[in-house]
């Protein structure tokens, strides 16, 4: 296996361990629940095929569901994020140019474009997740507040993760 595959596997293990061992036990004020593991799906190479991307996203979400004793909320939310990534990633990250990015990150893309991409995808993830958790739109205010708060916290954590664990010259 090449060096890039080992980086992806290492990122998967690190993010999943962080999510399952630490972040699954963090629930701030009833509205903030950080889900940093979704960053794994968002940082996969931009040339990843559609079917492999959807399968990886589903498998990642399913693993979190199994380990968290959930009912498939993570699997569905991750799969929808992967579908949105297929539709919007190239438009946001590369401004529509046919460029392949090995690791979409704050270093490989203009920071404001990457943060826009991150907030859009993480926001979509939380909107789906909290809508499923409440099972409907009857508490739309709570869903939107939890989505906004969790999106901001998770985005900040994702940027911090990248500054800590990614090196500018290795991306």
| CATH architecture group name | Orthogonal Bundle
Query: Tally of extended strands?
Result: 0
pLDDT < 50 runs, ≥5 residues: none
Strand content: under 5%
The first-to-last residue Cα distance is 18 Å
Question: Mind telling me the C-alpha Rg?
Answer: 15 Å
CATH class, named Mainly Alpha
- Provide a count of the helices: 6
| Average pLDDT taken over every residue | 88
How much helical structure, as a percent, in the residues? 55-70%
Written account of the structure:
This protein is mainly α and 171 residues long. The protein has one domain (3-170): Arp2/3 complex 21 kDa subunit ARPC3 (Orthogonal Bundle), CATH 1.10.1760. It is 67% helix and 0% strand. The protein is built from six helices and no strands. Helix 3 runs antiparallel to helix 4 and helix 4 (73-93) packs antiparallel against helix 5. The longest helix is centred in the C-terminal third of the chain and has 26 residues, at 140-165. The mean pLDDT is 88.
List the helices and strands and how they pair.
Elements lengths: L2 H19 L16 H5 L7 H19 L4 H21 L17 H24 L5 H26 L6
Helix pairs in contact: 3-4, 4-5, 5-6
Task: Based on the model shown, name its key terms.
single chain, 171 residues, mainly alpha, Arp2/3 complex 21 kDa subunit ARPC3, 6 helices
Summarize the structure.
With 171 residues, the chain is mainly α. It is built from six helices and no strands.
């Amino acid at each position: 296996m090449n060096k890039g595959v080992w980086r992806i596997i290492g990122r998967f293990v690190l993010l999943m361990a962080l999510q399952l061992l630490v972040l699954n036990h963090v629930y701030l004020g009833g509205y903030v629940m950080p889900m940093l593991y979704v960053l794994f799906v968002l940082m996969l190479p931009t040339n990843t095929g559609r079917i492999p991307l959807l399968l990886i996203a589903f498998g990642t979400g399913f693993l979190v569901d199994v380990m968290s004793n959930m009912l498939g909320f993570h699997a569905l939310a991750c799969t929808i994020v992967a579908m949105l990534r297929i539709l919007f990633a190239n438009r946001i990250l590369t401004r529509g140019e046919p460029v392949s990015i090995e690791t979409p990150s704050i270093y490989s893309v203009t920071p404001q474009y990457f943060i826009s991409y991150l907030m859009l995808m993480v926001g979509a993830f939380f909107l789906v997740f909290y809508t499923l958790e409440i099972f409907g739109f009857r508490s739309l205010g709570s869903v939107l507040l939890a989505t906004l708060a969790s999106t901001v916290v998770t985005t900040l954590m994702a940027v911090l993760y990248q500054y800590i664990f990614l090196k500018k010259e290795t991306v």
